[in-house]
Design goal:
It comes from Sphingomonas chungangi. The protein contains no helices and 12 strands. By secondary structure, the protein is mainly beta. The two termini are about 30 Å apart.
Length: about 150
C-alpha cells in the first residue's frame, strides 16, 4: 500500500435552524476519520456516522425547477449526482453545488419570518439536477456542524 496521506477533511454545508428560528448555512467538514481496512482490502479512511434507520430517495429536478420556501422533510444528507442546484436559507445565504458536493438539510422547525420558512432551492443551467438523499429517522438538532 502507498502512503495514505494525512487524515482527510471533507467539506459540506449544513442547513440548520438557529436559536432565532431562522435557517442558516454553515460550512462544516467531516474530520473524524480512521484508517482501517475492509476485509482483505488495503486500509482506507472511514468516517462512520451513527447507526440508525434511514430512507434513501433519488430525485431528478427538471431544468428551471424552483422549490419555493419549504423545510426538508427530515434531517437528510443531500448528494448531487449530476447537474447543478442552489439552496437559499432564510438569512439570505445562497450556495451552489454540483456533482460530488453534498450538504446536510436540517431546517425543520423554522419560525416563519416575512413569508419565509426553511429554504428555497432550484436547478442551475440547462440540464436536470439528479440528487440522492439519505433521510435519517432522527430528531433535528439546532447546533451547526454537530455531525463532525
Amino acid at each position: 500500500m502507498s502512503d495514505p496521506g494525512p487524515k482527510p477533511s471533507v467539506p459540506f454545508w449544513h442547513l440548520h435552524v438557529g436559536e432565532d428560528g431562522v435557517s442558516h448555512q454553515t460550512q462544516c467538514a467531516l474530520t473524524d476519520y480512521e484508517l482501517k481496512g475492509v476485509g482483505p482490502a488495503d486500509p482506507q479512511w472511514n468516517d462512520k456516522m451513527a447507526r440508525g434507520e434511514a430512507t434513501v430517495v433519488f430525485t431528478v429536478q427538471p431544468v428551471g425547477w424552483v422549490g419555493d420556501w419549504h423545510e426538508n422533510p427530515a434531517p437528510q444528507w443531500i448528494i448531487v449526482l449530476s447537474g447543478r442546484w442552489w439552496i437559499e436559507s432564510m438569512d439570505g445565504t445562497r450556495i451552489e453545488q454540483g456533482p460530488g458536493e453534498f450538504s446536510f438539510g436540517e431546517d425543520q422547525g423554522c419560525t416563519e419570518t416575512d413569508g419565509k420558512k426553511g429554504h428555497k432551492s432550484g436547478t442551475i443551467g440547462d440540464e436536470p439536477c439528479c440528487l440522492m438523499t439519505v433521510q435519517l429517522h432522527v430528531d433535528p438538532k439546532r447546533e451547526p456542524c454537530h455531525l463532525t
